[in-house]
TrEMBL record:
Its main location: plastid. This is Small ribosomal subunit protein bS18c. It comes from the Eukaryota. One of its GO terms (cellular component) is plastid.
């Protein structure tokens, strides 16, 4: 059969239903660090709703809980585990200072 004359057929892919990231028994609270830490990136940013697969109400509650935990110093505002090395920039500036007049 020609492609243009073929009727629309749905593909027979099977979709596995994903479990929601927050169960009905989980309480969204700033003290629940095991739950909150799942929704923060390595840099300490709040992940988007599309990445988290949360509902709008759940995402709002997670965002509020993360911000409360940051204010109470339970979570860092930034995750600075990787410190940038400044060896290259210091060598350039020291070379300029040793110039004779």
């Amino acid at each position: 059969m020609d492609k243009s004359k073929r009727p629309f057929l749905k593909s027979k892919r099977s979709f596995r239903r994903r479990l929601p990231p927050i169960q009905s028994g989980d309480r969204i609270d700033y003290r629940n660090m095991s739950l909150i830490s799942r929704f923060i990136s390595e840099q300490g940013k709040i992940l988007s709703r599309r990445v988290n697969k949360l509902t709008l109400k759940q995402q709002r509650l997670i965002t509020i809980a993360i911000k409360q935990a940051r204010i109470l110093s339970l979570l860092p505002f930034l995750n600075n585990e990787k410190q940038f090395e400044r060896t290259e920039s210091t060598s350039r500036t020291t070379g300029l200072r040793t110039r004779n007049k």
